[in-house]
Amino acid sequence: MAMMGGEKRKAPEPVETTEPEAAVEVPAATEVAPSQKVAVIAVKTAETAEPDAKRLKTSPHVDAAVVRKQIEYYLSDENLKFDKFFHEKIATDSEGWLEMNLVLSCNKMKALRATQADVVAALESSKIEMKDGGASIRRPGNAPLPKLEARPQHQKKNVAHAHDGGVLAVIKAIPEEQSW
Predict the structure, then answer these.
(1) Within-domain flag for 105
(2) Is residue 178 part of a domain?
(3) Exposed, middle or buried: residue 176 (CB in 10 Å: 0-12, 13-18, 19+)?
(4) pTM of whole model > 0.85?
(5) Residue 30: inside a domain, yes or no?
């Protein structure tokens, strides 16, 4: 509805929901002045406090080959020469053990929804060593860590872009009846 000057507008109709615990009763107002502000407060229950999309869903099947490959990558020379966090954690333990909870806290492992039991099952066919039922893992044969290096920065490609260089033109004396 268009609003002119001091006209009054109708308040929005209350929205009904099929979930009784999420329903909020809003007193019906017939007219609201433009200068008035109306606030509707929704109360969330424990069930609706976090949207379904945000909750991690448990997956009945975790691909053991993918989990094994990810753990082997974490402990590889290729990764550890740039991964300061894991490099330092492994270096502080005299026997080179890395706690499983640190591995499971990685975003990639969270995305896989892997549990400690999934990792233990996946590493049965791997050279990665485990102790205490999978509470800690280490590189095969407690291999020495590679030297920690700074991660190389991405280099910009030397490619001409449409906005690089070009022609600057000035057009004058265009008749007003000319349409573009």
Answers:
(1) yes
(2) no
(3) exposed
(4) no
(5) no
| Contacts for 96 with CB less than 8 Å, ≥ 6 apart | 90, 138, 139, 142, 143, 145
* Gap between the Cα atoms of 123 and 67, Å rounded: 8
Phi (first) and psi of residue 95, to 5 degrees: -105, 5
> Does 112 reside within a domain?
yes
Report how far apart, in Å, the C-alpha atoms of 68 and of each of 2, 6, 77, 112, 128 are.
62, 69, 16, 11, 9
Domain that holds residue 80: 64-142
Closest CA to 26 of 44, 38, 8, 9: 38
What is the amino acid identity at position 84?
Answer: K
Identify residue 91 by its one-letter amino acid code.
A
Q: What's the number of domains the chain is made of?
A: 1
**For 124-141, what is each residue's pLDDT tens digit?**
989 999 999 889 999 999
Both tokens of 65, joined, read: 């080959």
Residues 6+ apart with CB under 8 A from 22: 42, 44, 45, 48
